[in-house]
Amino acid sequence: MTHDPISRFRRFARSVTTEVGALDESFLGRGRSLGAARVLNAIGHGHADVADLRTYLNLDSGLLSRLLRQLEGEDLITLSPSPTDARARIAALTLAGKAEFTAYEEISNTRAANLLDRHPHPEALLAAMDLIASALGQDRTVIEERDPRDPQSLFCLNEYYAELGRRLRTGFDVNLSCDPQATDMIPPRGAFLVALSDGMPIGCVGVKGSGAPIAEIKRLWIAPSARGLGMAKRLMTAAETRAKALGIQTLRLDTNSALPEAIRLYQTTGWTEIDRFNDDPYPDFFFEKTL
Amino acid sequence: MTHDPISRFRRFARSVTTEVGALDESFLGRGRSLGAARVLNAIGHGHADVADLRTYLNLDSGLLSRLLRQLEGEDLITLSPSPTDARARIAALTLAGKAEFTAYEEISNTRAANLLDRHPHPEALLAAMDLIASALGQDRTVIEERDPRDPQSLFCLNEYYAELGRRLRTGFDVNLSCDPQATDMIPPRGAFLVALSDGMPIGCVGVKGSGAPIAEIKRLWIAPSARGLGMAKRLMTAAETRAKALGIQTLRLDTNSALPEAIRLYQTTGWTEIDRFNDDPYPDFFFEKTL
DNA sequence: TCATTTGTCTGACTTAAGTCAGGTAAATTG
DNA sequence: CAATTTACCTGACTTAAGTCAGACAAATGA
């Protein structure tokens, strides 16, 4: 058998291992060990405090300490005590460090751009990568509270509107809908949650409150590449927990029969169908849940 | 920007690196260094002679020698001189070695099966993996001459027939077509070439000869995941070179207007359209090329 | 046949990576 | 406030990985 699922998976793993190995090789071209390069890159990507670096890179405290001093010796980073805890130290790139970091980024970006450039269907290739990254990263997906006007929140919301436009027979115009004001989805009135897989937004949900003990769930969206992995359930659970913490006792939501997966989710997670509670033209299904 | 092509590519690379790292970790669970495990696996996958192992694993001769002796000391492999060259040595797994090899395979296969099992659309995930593996592996794709009755050849031929069935408005029944006898595509009359990416067949082409200095190109097929990467051109060039070596002076082929990519390829690579030269019901385009 | 090349092995290295047991100073807790 | 915990550092290790210069025997070519 040469074409069974497992052979195909393993061929994928081999090809990707080769690519990863080649990237590591080109990293070594900058005359620094892979360990030091990883630390430099992690700092450049915003992992500032030493404790964070240690868990992110999964390094022994002694080993990381030495790597940090090596980078400090090369004048690529500075280490200063944390203002809130004089024991902890915070790493920052110097100008030279930023230049080195950019050089490493260039290596990665060039490899990525080359591969995408010479492919006949870059968008298909990227969609495939999204799918695989979501499947592999499902255990590492985190849910974070964000301002709904954040770039990552806006990305989710735009995708959500675009998808509604495609799926509702009538199309979707956000201006005709009961569009929640951003402040209604920010504490203390409400909250907006984004699911991030490796930093990439792959889903969102909003709790739209008014200060009263009743609030609405809005804008539940999951990226196509992440569907079927249980993200909607995780997001809804997180939203309910957050709503409870904000003092909300009852949640309501409206949805559309063109979104059967969503309706099925609500039906199986303790929501009860209720009568129409607004005059928004789009929804035709209404649910309620007591927390 | 959080959703540009390069970010998406790099998110993919990160998630896959984590997965590869986790696999290496579980390999270490068998109490052998990664180097020794890699050698054992390579032998199990048919890399028997030491020289082949050295190039395949890209190892220093001294290092490989030591790893081999370590495995020999564990009674996992035997090393015997090659019958054709008494300097060269050939590695083979002992019974215990086969058991260890299987254990490593199990680790990989279980990880693969787990991931596929818990995904809602395993076939979509696999198609995405095929696409990426073909894109990453395009430089490592090799063209090999095979017997057209080989399992890998048959896989290509079946896919080819299935695809014709989908694309021809009339469907496609191999029995109605001028199906070449396998012996017509085996030296000295002809040849059958298969493109292999990491051992996986992703394309084929046949040269159907009769002993005369005129022969036909048949069964040109490229896997969907590998289209647009120039494989068809590579296969055709290889087929022409092989035909020439078999003493063939003129090549002909028939094709169908439902396959415009193929027709475009022939038109741009030195083929001239000619009159119908057979009464096969399927083709409606005919080409010829003098080598 | 004899010089050269080839395939593998050995011993003596270097280096990166990682482990582990203290040590110091700051923060936290009862 | 004293005891404990936490965050990081240091020194002394081990191990895997990899490099390099020969050594040897078999194969090859003039």
SSE blueprint and pairings:
2 copies of one chain form a homodimer.
Chain A: H1 5-28, H2 34-44, H3 50-57, H4 61-73, E1 77-81, E2 89-93, H5 95-117, H6 122-136, E3 142-145, H7 151-167, E4 191-197, E5 200-208, E6 214-222, H8 231-245, E7 250-255, H9 260-268, E8 272-273, E9 285-290
Parallel strand pairs in A: 6-7
Antiparallel strand pairs in A: 1-2, 3-4, 4-5, 5-6, 7-9, 8-9
Helix pairs in contact in A: 2-4, 2-5
Chain A binds a DNA duplex (30 and 30 nucleotides) through helix 3 and helix 4.
Q: Can you describe what's shown?
A:
The first copy, chain A, has 291 residues and is of the alpha+beta class. Chain A has two domains: 5-118, Arc Repressor Mutant, subunit A, CATH 1.10.10; 140-290, Gcn5-related N-acetyltransferase (GNAT) (Aminopeptidase, 3-Layer(aba) Sandwich), CATH 3.40.630.30. The first copy, chain A, is built from nine helices and nine strands. Chain A has helices at residues 5-28, 34-44, 50-57, 61-73, 95-117, 122-136, 151-167, 231-245, 260-268, and strands at 77-81, 89-93, 142-145, 191-197, 200-208, 214-222, 250-255, 272-273, 285-290. In chain A, the strands form two sheets. A seven-stranded mixed sheet of chain A has the order 3-4-5-6-7-9-8, with helices on both faces. A two-stranded antiparallel ribbon of chain A has the order 1-2. In chain A, α2 (34-44) crosses α4 and α2 crosses α5. Chain A is globular and about 65 Å long. The mean pLDDT of chain A is 92. Chain A binds a DNA duplex (30 and 30 nucleotides) through α3 and α4.
